[in-house]
Amino acid sequence: DRCDAGDERQVQPGQSVPITEGFESVSSLPNNDWEVIDFAGDGGFQVTSSAAYSGSRSVRLPNTIFSAGRTDELVSSTYDLSGAPGAIIIFRYAYAKRYIADDDELYIWVSGNCGDTWALRKIMRGNTSLLTAGVVPGNFVPSDPAQWRFTEISNIGPNLCTPNFRVRFQFISNGGNDLYLDDINI
Question: Which of 76, 93, 102, 86 is nearest to 168 (CA)?
């Protein structure tokens, strides 16, 4: 990771953009492009071939009633956005509640300094914008494109468009159901 280069990290820019990540060539996580932070040590984000919006793979975060209160993160490698007047992140996601009261949360953060500091850019909650497939009492696996949604994050100004840009998906469980991410584009 370019962020581990110590004092030289400002000299080593990240991957060039645009970035299109559909996880089709990814066999497992973590890898050189994605870091998985699994605070509870219960699995975290993982590549799956059980569902995808496009292609045959996506990233799944297993989430059960026993996961309530746990936080998991999926963090990108660095990207070189230097000189850009702004950036846009788009991605597909699928999520169902396990019970009507579930209100899991997905936070999307960005960083212009390799993750030393983060700027919150979007909050999606199980009771509002995160919900794509209603209530599914068993394990949720999206089986239809209609169970996926699209979101766009465009509030990324030039101050964050550096050679060391990163994205972090942070999921805080309220005991709901599995979350799927696919087709992440920067």
Answer: 76
State the Cα torsion 117-121-123-129 to the nearest 10°. Answer: -160
In this prediction, residue 7 carries a pLDDT of: 47
Rounded to two decimals, the pTM is 0.92
Per residue in 148-171, pLDDT (tens digit) is 999 999 999 999 999 999 999 999
Question: What is the rounded distance in angstroms from the CA atom of residue 9 to the CA atom of residue 111?
Answer: 14
Cβ atoms of residues 126 and 143 within 8 Å? no
- How is residue 152 annotated by DSSP? E
Given a cut of 70, whether residue 183 has pLDDT beyond it is yes
In whole angstroms, what is the distance from residue 137 CA to residue 157 CA?
41
Q: Who's near 41: CB < 8 A, 6+ residues apart? A: none
Scanning 80-157, the segments in alpha helix (DSSP H) are: none
- H or E stretch including 47? strand 46-48
User: At CA 110, angle to CA 107 and CA 115, rounded to 5?
Assistant: 110
Instruction: Pull the structure tokens for residue 4.
Output: 């581990």
